Structure formats: structure tokens, C-alpha cells
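Morning!

As promised:
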Amino acid sequence: MTEHIAVAAGLDAESADWPRALACTGPRREEALARLHEMLVRVARGEVARRGPRLRLTGPELDDLAYQAAADALVAIISKLGQFRGESRFTTWTYKFVIFEVSAKIGRHFWRHPDVRLDAEDWERLPDRFGFDPAQEAEWRDLLAALQRAVTEELTARQRRIFVAIVLNNVPLDTLVIELGSSRNAIYKTLFDARRKLRAALAADGYMGDDGLGRS
Amino acid sequence: MNGWSALDRFLRTDPRDVGCAQAMEILHVYAELAAAGAPVDERYPGVGAHLRACGPCAEDFEGLLAAVRGEAG
């Protein structure tokens, strides 16, 4: 499905000026680059601070990651300056680059982390991954056995590998992108298709109706 | 959320879901409109469907929204 970007009726003066300043030469460009870098560092630091509590990263590492993300975002923005079409403010467009750089760098951090396991299939983790109560195992045991069977029998090798990494081993999707040399879109699409197949398999086994999972 | 509803939610797929590439392409427009209180889900239902299902893209959207709101604040 395609959704077209609505082009803004008029670009504000500041947004119109940024690309001109960055594309020119001399002191005006240097001043614009410095201002943009400062802005990107501020946004990157805000973003790593926002995500920080959920990451196994400490203060200096977070700050280092923020500076690297800002520097790489600046390079990307300059190289893609001609792609700014004015559908948003210029600053919003640039923030997107730095947010994506923070995401990618966090993914790379986990890739290097020795605790990250991609292929180990520990199915005992499955109930915990979805928050099933161990005290009520009699209610969900058959359902999860059917799910495991569907993963084994219905999914392709790639779908199964991605399901195992993301669902069983809790590997961040962006880390898997690096490990498999793929893209976020391709991994998501593979998992999307796997989810659809698994749902159909559970429905065929009588575990799922139109209203969702049933406890029949 | 219990295990039944969490698994049900995970297995639900929305045919309107545009995927990561298109959502990322448009995210700056979507975030700016969302920050302004516009009905983004009506204008871009496929992006909304994607952000409800994709954790990494939703995280990026939240970060971008926070940056835009920080600029306004």
C-alpha cells in the first residue's frame, strides 16, 4: 500500500534558508554546519537519554554514542540535502537522520554484546516471552505446543530463524539487521509473513477464531 | 496484558501496514503533524498501522516526536 506525502503549501523562511546556507561556501556555510551539528548533538543526547534506562549502557558510552550519531547524521544530511522537499520543517527532517543513527548504533552495540544469542532455540522461554502465568500452565500448554509445531512445520528456514531470534532470544530487530546483512524492512516483512502463517495455523487447529485466541 | 492477549496481539497483522521502508520515508511528516495534533491516523492509516506493530519504528517515532516537541517547548 502506498501513502503519498502531503507537500506543505509553503515552506517557512528558516526551512528555506537552511539548505541554501549549507550548500553555499565560506563562513556562512561553516556557521550553518556548526549550528546544525550543535542541534543534532542536542537531539542525539536527548534521544540516548530517553532510551538509556532500557539499555545496558552507561553515561560516558551514551554520550559517545550521541556524538557519533550526530556526526554521522551530519554527513548523511549534507549528502542528501537535495532530497529535502519541504514536506516538513527542515529541522524535523534533520532530526529524523539523527534518530535513525541512534537506532542503528544501539543495534550495533547489541551486536557486539556477548550475551546476544541468535539461533539458540530454548522453547522453555516462550511462555515467559508472552507473559503466560506458570501457575496456569494447564490452560496454555497445548496452545504453545501448537505454536511451536507451527513454527517448525509452517515457516520457511529464514522465517523460523527470525522468529527464534526475535521472539525466543529477544534479539533487537536492528541487531538482527546487522547480523543478517539485511534491512529493517526486509526483516519486518519476513516476520510479518511468519505471524500471518502462525495465526492461520492456530486457527486451523481451533485455537483462534475471528475474535482472537480462544481457550477452547 | 496476559499471555493470551499478548500472543494474540503479536499474531495480528494489519493489511494496511506499509512496512518499515515507507514508514521511515514519511516519518518526519507524520511526526510533525502528530506534534501539531493533526489526525495522522486518518491521513496515513498505513503508517499508523505499522507503528502499532513495529517496535523499532515506533521507538524512532517516539524519539522524533520528542525532538519536535522539545523544539516547540
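Residues 15-72 of chain B form one domain.

Hope this helps with the figure draft.
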